[in-house]
Amino acid sequence: MPLDLATSVKYLKGVGPRRAEALGRLGVRTVGDLLYHAPHRYLDATTITPLARAQMGTEVSCVGRVVTTGILPTRRGLRVFRAVLKDDSGLLECAWPGQPFLERTIKKGQLLLVTGPVRYYHGRQVVPREFIVLAEEGETGPDRGLILPVYPATAGLSHKQIRALINQHLEALLALARDPHPKPLRERVGISELRTALAAVHRPETLPQAEAGRRRLAFDEFFDQQLVQARARFLAKRARAGIRFELKRELTTRLKEHLPFELTADQRQAIREIADDMTAPLRMHRLLMGDVGTGKTVVALFAMLLAVENDYQAAIMAPTELLAEQHFATLTQLLEPLAIRPELLIGRFTAAEKAAARERMARGASRVIVGTHALIQESVTFQRLGLAVIDEQHRFGVEQRAALVEKGDAPDVLLLTATPIPRSLALTLYGDLDVTQLRERPPGRGAVKAALRTDEARARIYEFIRSECAAGRQAYVIYPVIDESEKADLKAATTMADKLTKVFREFTVGLVHGRLRAEERDDTMRAFRDNQVHVLVATSVIEVGIDVANATVMLIEHAERFGLAQLHQLRGRVGRGSAPSHCILLSDVPEAATRLEAFTKTTDGFRIAELDLQERGMGELAGARQSGGMALRYADFGRDLDLLEASRRAAAGIIERDPALTRPEHAVYRERILQRYERGFELFRVG
After folding, report:
1. Directed axis angle between helix 667-676 and helix 207-238, to 10°?
2. What long-range pairs does 595-603 form, CB within 8 A, spacing at least 24?
3. Which phi and psi angles does 166 have, rounded to 5°?
4. What are phi and psi for residue 63, nearest 5 degrees?
């Protein structure tokens, strides 16, 4: 049957139902999947050692003719297949313990490439990790070595079997590949033609050649993703005309004059970027990414007042009632000199309170509104929503964010996040947004001193917590699990809360974790905020928490169980006031010491995010965004940031010229997006 990339892999010679099932476990279901099933590493057997020079204790790659074969039994009953190879320099024995079946594969007269360690057993002997038959008896084969691709494998299908299968069909598969990129684009970016790249990935002559092939596939991966982002951005900003706000400098100037602190240079720059967006005819679609304690709320307030002085309403939606209450308290204080009182709408209000708030919002009496998911209920209407601010936006689904935006007539959108991420990740996850970063901390914030300790220091740490609480301050104690039953070797929050209640008898100990009802959790957090609870035992549920300026100690048990970015978010819960604060990591795992020490030496969230990305890789981090995207298989953020930037520029240029990819030369791009992305159809069904 004629092949195409969508043909089931089971129709290939040498596959069949059983192998097709095994390949399916690797995500290889079609002929195209097999072509793109790239090796995850290579064995470099290009440097050939003459057989006579194979030294004991070294790793070698050798090429020689098989002169004898045989199976030797050992005293322990293990059968060893052996073959003696010969080249111009001499002879060398190869041994494969426990693999007598190789007698059916390796024959006298074949030219063999072997690679592996040299040991001594009745003479020098190679124990091959890999071997390849380069030529049969009577044939002349290459006298040089090879690069051996090592493929992701699965039960019932070894990487050698996959290598043989791909090698058998490679020419036929390559003939099916169509390069969607025109030659000028390839030359501009510096990437190879698609068939050349795929051949280099599967059958490279050198490692640099294999790397050039991988980079081409990495570019395609980034490019498809950036094309989707560029299209989403186009729809968000241009499909409906935005509001062109005027910079009246009435309320914004008065706010600046009455602020009890100086804005940082980063905050001033962020305010300028947001104002430029809001006064432009296109809709604003911006992400404000600020490290813990860099003052995102104040920046958002300037944007909200720009909307208000243009006779529009502005709303900020937070993921929890506590965070909404905190924003309400902050905005109430900052707006008091301007005689503006914000409106608060949260789920725990009585029916009468909610009805009154909704009525004020509907007639426009409330101009600055703070709330939770309560803002997106059907019963809520705004008179004239001009700006939607979404705090900790990753805590909301795509639909929830859209629901708030749809409460207005194409309002501007400002998303806030306290999770710093590297530029590479920002371009990948948030390519549909303009991104502003806040890195600079306002003066007057207490310094947070971080230290790594082992369990031996526990008594001293408890004494330190006691002294801080006795001085009127408060402490957090964080655990990675809730119940002991989850992991017998880990201290758990519930058990330790009981224990710490006895340790700190003179103080009130509270407990919060993810399984508590939201009301119980919020009640305990409010009590901690109001200094009625002195030591708060918690899981990472408080990672995105509230400001408790009086909390000065953060003790994190089993710190090795947390990612670096998560530790940074937890550390951000202290140091909110002017008193010196401390973050103590407890860990008895020596293997984790290096990474935890690296964490204690920097407070820069963006630097920590880079370390986290190196440690955990892209896949785990990228899963944080509900974008319907696909995981990256070929790209490497450590090496490919230039490709990411190039793919972003190329994709943006194409969408600028042909927003719906309707031109014939872009048909293949459109087809790929529709196939590869869950939301592809949705993004391209409108012109």
Report:
1. 90
2. 595/564, 596/452, 596/559, 596/560, 597/452, 598/564, 599/450, 599/564, 599/567, 599/568, 600/450, 600/451, 600/452, 601/450, 603/448, 603/450, 603/571
3. -65, -40
4. -125, 130
Which pTM does this prediction carry?
0.70
Query: What type of residue is 162?
Result: I
In this structure, is the dihedral angle defined by the CA atoms of residues 287, 293, 298 and 299, taken in order, positive or negative?
negative
Tracing tokens 């040089």 back to the chain, one arrives at 144
Which spans in 37-193 are helix H? 159-174, 183-189
Length of the chain: 687
Judge residue 484's burial from the number of C-beta atoms within 10 Å of its C-beta, 0-12 exposed, 13-18 middle, 19 or more buried: middle
Tokens of 79: 């059968």
* Identity of residue 415: L
Q: Which domains are delineated in the chain?
A: 47-144 (2.40.50.140), 251-280+294-417 (3.40.50.300), 448-603 (3.40.50.300)
Distance between CA 259 and CA 271 in Å, rounded? 15
The label of the residue with tokens 């009455």 reads 258
How is residue 49 annotated by DSSP? P
Distance CA 353, CA 345 (A): 8
Phi/psi zone of residue 364: left (φ > 0), alpha (ψ -120 to 50 degrees), beta? left
Which pLDDT band holds residue 88 (cuts at 50, 70, 90)? Answer: very high
CA 594 to chain centre: 22
Q: Which of 562, 581, 585 is nearest to 573 (CA)?
A: 581
Angle between helices 321-335 and 251-258 (to 10 degrees): 90
Are the C-beta atoms of residues 262 and 295 closer than 8 Å to each other?
no
Instruction: Give the per-residue SS3 of 464-513.
Output: HHHHHHHCCCEEEEECCCCCHHHCCCCCCHHHHHHHHHHHCCCCCEEEEC
Q: What's the mean pLDDT in 498-522?
A: 89
pLDDT tens-digit profile of 418-456?
Answer: 888 777 777 777 777 888 989 888 776 767 899 999 999
pLDDT by residue (tens digit) across 195-205?
Answer: 999 999 999 99
Distance, in Å, from the CA atom of 237 to the CA atom of 683, rounded to the nearest integer, reads 14
Distant-in-sequence, close-in-space partners of 291: CB < 8 Å, separation ≥ 6: 418, 420, 438, 439, 441, 572, 604, 605, 606
CA distance 594 to 254: 49
| Statement: residue 629 has pLDDT above 50 | no
What gap in Å lies between CA 285 and CA 283, rounded to an integer?
6
Residue 319 to residue 478: CA distance in whole angstroms: 21
